[in-house]
Amino acid sequence: MNLKPIRSHDELSAALARIEELWGAPIDTPEGNELEILSLLVEKYEDEHFPIKPSNPVEAIKFRMEQQGLQPKDLEPFIGGSGRVSEVLSKKRRLTLPMIRKLNAGLNIPLESLVNAY
Predict the structure, then answer these.
(1) 3: how many CB neighbours lie within 10 A of its CB?
(2) Concatenated DSSP letters for 49-69?
(3) Which of 7, 32, 56, 100 could staple 25 via S-S, CB 3.0–4.6 A?
(4) CB count, 10 Å around CB of 111?
(5) pTM confidence score
(6) For the chain, what is the largest distance between any 2 Cα atoms, rounded to a whole number of angstroms?
């Protein structure tokens, strides 16, 4: 096992190919340890070179609605009347701090997703 930081796309490709070969290796074996370390190296490289932008608050709300099978009327306890819900979902009105707190507490939407600019 000759491990080193991944610094190029070619090295990333080689690491991914090796991960595929090692996939399913038992934990606490030389192969399992190599798989775990390679996975961490790939994750670090991808985080640095392919960062994922923070989600848009409205998209986070819509995603949670889809996950839980919610309709816009189901957001009224968190956002306000149907008109206000419609304005928020169409990005005509920004979320207020009380809305953010209620959405976080009631629907478990991460605060980090709700406070991003959009």
Answers:
(1) 13
(2) HSPPPPPPHHHHHHHHHHHHT
(3) 32
(4) 11
(5) 0.60
(6) 61
CA dist., res. 1 & res. 118, Å (int): 46
**pLDDT given for residue 1 in this prediction:** 63
Q: Is residue 45 within a helix (H) or strand (E), and if so which, with residue range?
A: helix 30-49
| Inter-residue long-range contacts of 44-52, CB under 8 Å, 24+ positions, other chains counted | 44/5, 44/6, 45/5, 45/6, 45/7, 45/12, 45/15, 46/12
Residue 86: predicted pLDDT: 97
**CA dist., res. 116 & res. 56, Å (int):** 6
> Which of 118, 12, 8, 113 lies closest to 67, judged by CA?
113
Token digits of residue 66: 């889809």
pLDDT interval class at 70 (50, 70, 90) = very high
Q: Tell me if residue 27 falls in helix, strand or coil.
A: coil
